[in-house]
Amino acid sequence: MLAWLSRRSLRFLHVVGGFAGWLAYGVSPGYRRRLQANAALAQVPEGAWRASVAEAGKLTFELPRLWLRPAAHAINDPVQWLGAEHVDAALARGRGLVLLTPHMGSFEVAAQAYAERFGAVQPITVLYRPARQAWLRDLEETARARPALATAPANLAGVRSLLRALKRGQTVGLLPDQVPPAGMGVWVPFFGQSAYTMTLAARLVQQTGAVPLLIWAERLARGTGYVVRLSPLSEPLPAPGGDDTAWQHAAAAAMNRNMEQMILLKPSQYLWGYNRYKQPRQGVA
């Protein structure tokens, strides 16, 4: 079925995915309550969060087309760029890059598009959380690894991979609104409610001197492709001070405010059903 879906047009996948998104919304009361509650915290208009229901389904159904094409083949659909000059400027200075995107738009496209355009100069390593199902975990590991695009699991070994990449002057990508394991984050506000927030993104910038940039891939209507949007942080991260605990809280809060401003640019493409305010899973700090 996944192989069959991978050969369908993007427009077809988005139509089917939109229906699937609403089906999931209709049959899952918990998902429905969480989506509405998260959107209400951010004061998102009803039209925007209702549009996000279909967008979540489109995200799922476009994955086979992105994952299962031959590794050497470019993305099959048009990709436009806005703000690519920010990457060019960082590459010209020979500095590492930390690309930051929330659960918004097509984050799979963002990583693959970067690898296709800039990977020959500066490859990218992307942090991801392995799926619980063994078959899906195996598919993720093979499908996401592409020329100039490596993956790193969200554990200690993965963090070391990100540090090594940045120290070589390469690029890393991660989702700062992803709930980290216990001991790897702090509780700070996200849309007015306390959320366990990773400190890794800010720490990578602090320890390596890399350039942080915001990136997200907007999914265009009627399956016509994507627009990858890049910009500097809207609010700079605080400089480290004497109290590391206080700095971690300040840096994580600033990161959340950057994510909030980015999400509100196009709230219809954020995954409001993501369980952002859950308790972190137990892990090794």
Based on the model shown, name its key terms.
single chain, 285 residues, alpha/beta, 7-stranded mixed beta sheet, two-stranded antiparallel sheet, 10 helices, 9 strands
Characterize the largest beta sheet: strand count, sense, and whether it forms a barrel: 7 strands, mixed
- Strand coverage percent: 15-25%
Q: Helix count?
A: 10
**Spans of 5+ residues with little confidence (pLDDT < 50)?**
none
* Proportion of residues in helical segments: 40-55%
Count of DSSP strands? 9
Element pattern in H and E: HHHHEHEHEHEHEEEHEEH
User: What is the averaged pLDDT score?
Assistant: 93
Rg, Cα atoms, Å: 18 Å
Strand order of the largest sheet: 1-9-8-2-5-3-4
Task: Please state the structural category.
Answer: alpha/beta
The coarse overall form would be: globular
In whole angstroms, the N-to-C terminal distance is: 39 Å
